[in-house]
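re: ur question from the group chat, yeah i did fold both. here u go
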Amino acid sequence: MDYLVKRTKRKSVSISIDENGVVKVFAPFGVPNIYIEELIDENKNWIDENLENIKRKKMNKKQWTFKEGMTVPFLGKDYNIKFIIGNFPKNYIRFYENTFQFELNKKIYDDSFKRIEICKDLLKDFYKKEGNIYLKRRTKELEKIIGVKSIDIRVKDVKTIWGSCSSKNNINYNLRLMMMDKNFIDYVIIHELCHLLHRNHSKAFWNEVFKYCNDYRKIRNDIKEVGFYYNTL
């Protein structure tokens, strides 16, 4: 079995598998390779199971084709897309009458590669714009409930995380959150706001999350399922 070994200053050895199916072992500098090989062998069933899940998700995931008939997620619901083709000086996206309308220059529309790339960029711009409204407003609402206050809230184009909280109490969100159900979004916001009280993932932290989102375990698992597709945008 192929795997990467990363030597670190940490005291323990751990195994992780990223979204591309790369098995990584994080180990202290003094741990011998034979120990790592034995650890991989002991966890072979777990590794194989997770690699199979990743393979299955890749095979079953939807494709961002941006053709008529494709649907686009927004706040947990799927909406049809419509193309308006013309000699537009600028490509544009609007959400109108429960439909995503893409106004594209004909040369762009006829080139499938350019159409997909342009539509992806337009959609990400849309999510970021809407996220700067919805995510900021909802964060302020939940801050009052939890009794905390962030310094700054930003919506960014990142793929590895859904949200983060800095040491300066700044909250960052992945623009792709705007694809998700509102209860999923609430969980991510609550998660980051609870980091203003607990800077780790200790039992105290999760107890705090549970106060405001008692089904967070299920939501975390659900997010992993839908997030695999969302992060391909």
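okk and heres the other one u asked abt
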Amino acid sequence: MRLLRFFGGLIVLVAILWYGVLNFYRGEMMFFDHYLPRDFPFPNQSRHGKSFTVYDSAGNLLEQRTFLRSEPFTPEETELFRDWFRVLDLEVDGYPLPKEEIDLFFMDFMGIETEAVKSRIVNLYADRLLEGTPVTGVRLRLLRYLTADRLLKSAGFPALYAAYADNIVIGDDTYGIKAASQTFFNRSIHRANQKEKAFLFTMLKDYSLYDPIENFAATERRANIYLHFLYQRGILEREEYLHARDYRLILNMAKDPEPQEIEYLRAVAEELKALGVEAGEPCEVHTYFDAEKTEMLRSTVAEYMKTQENGLQSAFVLLDVEKGGIVAMTGAREGKSLKRAYYSRRQTGSTFKPIVYASAFDSGAKPTDFVNDRRHVYKLGRGSYSPRNFEEFYMGNIPVRKGLVYSLNNATIQLAVKTGLNRVAENAVNMGMKADVRPYLAMPLGIFAVTPANLAQVYGTLADYGVYRERGLIEKVKFPDGRVINPGAEQTRVLDEKAAFQTLYIMQDVPRIGTAKGKGLMKGTAAKTGTTDEYRDAWVAAVFPPYVAVVWVGYDTNRSMGEKGTGGTKAAPLAAAVQKKLFEPEHDVNFHVPEGVGFYKVSSADGRLITDKCSYKRGYTEALADDNLPEECVR
């Protein structure tokens, strides 16, 4: 009976103890469960490199100024260096396993991986997750073991290694050891030798202790220790190890490459300023610059200008309408200067006239309408204005189209007055002209000064059938925070496409029978020449899809070129020479015909439609809007 009572009491005691242990365990588990982080976020690479870079249209680097380097490991690269990370993390820098019984019991009971406890990198991240936790002593230590284990099982060694290697701060301008390879050895980590790689990995311990600049000797000694561990673990062969250990390490600090195309980069800086991008702001600038076409342009201009008078200067701008910007530009008779193409403003002369005709057609006028080309006298208050035609050549009552083909001043002013000078001025600005265009009677003759680059942009709107967009040097600007500026993304229709096409169609006769006749421009090119008073400026603006070419020739001193200093004589042959370099001789210049435009035979005498009922057949073919046709012939 006593024995039964004894065993009964013992069972009760054991049950009480077990219940107490169970409650204690439950309480501890609740404690750890309460303070254990709920989420184990993947420690992504969060640093962005900061540099100012400019690229040409082919992706070639034109300029780079590095402010902060950062280059993350890819998953494949992390796997490639996995053994290097593990040896460094678990052996060279690893924590020793705990010896206290409670620690060992807790690790065994909770199934905690020993590598999670030994890993310096995993524990660093675990400590970050536990920052601010109101736990101290043994409990904090055990909680860190548990957090490290859960973190390792959640993210895995490769991801943790990559995140740590990417985010470590090295010096004032580098994040991560991949970027450090560029900083200290001026080459990628894949091209670094074993000693250089060990040197880089050494910095993961503590850059303040192992600074290659301040503590080069200490850093190299530790790199050799690391190499020895790699050799002991069979990651390096003996010959590899000995060669790496004895290799004389020399730092080759990275330097930004010398900038290319300095003059062009200055112009890019001007556009960036206009876009609100501050000087030196980290960003990636992609331009339309085409190195091959630019070199062709320079050589062609230099060759042509050798045939011209000494001191005569030139500018050439080549804009690609399809790509959206200026692909090549030169602003001197030879060399790389852009002065006269991008900065110097000159009166446009008759290259302004297509704006008048496009505005007229946009307002309902027809190319077959008639205008009186004679010398008019316009009363202006107490004075008067009476412009002359070139060489006093007047054609009388003529179809509107002839005023543009033969660049007739009086016919053009008459058309501008009928259309509305204010409307013409407004359209000029809407098409992109960067000038204070005023509705003066002389406005249609090109009295306002612009740069050749700006005139090319205006003609780009015409070539794009009346759609305005920014057509400069810059395609887009990308910022480290993901923002993107695309100057040409916003498009605005400023002219009816039928009106734009009708203007271009008439301009195709300028090289055929007009002011650029016999100057070598390719058949089908839509062009307009321009000559300012006293032959000070000679222009040609040519449209031949996908390009717009603007050429200026003149003296910097603004003196006269003489009677041969016209746009047809001085500028058009240069545009023709470039055309021949861009295309094969048999190339056809073609323009897309917009919907709603047809080609009709009209009378030369009165501009009426010629039908089968007409007794006379003499006429020409005109591009007309289907919904705005002239009357049919009456006999």
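fwiw on the second one: The chain has a mean pLDDT of 90. The radius of gyration is 39 Å. idk if thats what u expected
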